[in-house]
Design goal:
Length: 57
């Protein structure tokens, strides 16, 4: 699988992790410290994946 395809899947998995965090904290979405760290890590994974995809331009 290409690096770009891997980047797409990595971003999708990270988004799924965020969706799970939001599901766990519904309806108010108040995150605890560990959840905030997990959110930050997921966002970093997404941004890294987007950078890899952006390099296709």
């Amino acid at each position: 699988m290409s690096e770009e395809s891997n980047a797409v899947f990595e971003a999708m998995f990270a988004l799924e992790d965020i969706r799970e965090l939001l599901r766990e904290t519904a309806p108010e979405h108040r995150l605890g410290e560990e959840q905030k760290k997990a959110l930050e890590e997921s966002l970093k994974r997404i941004m890294s994946s987007l950078k890899a995809l952006e390099d296709l331009k």
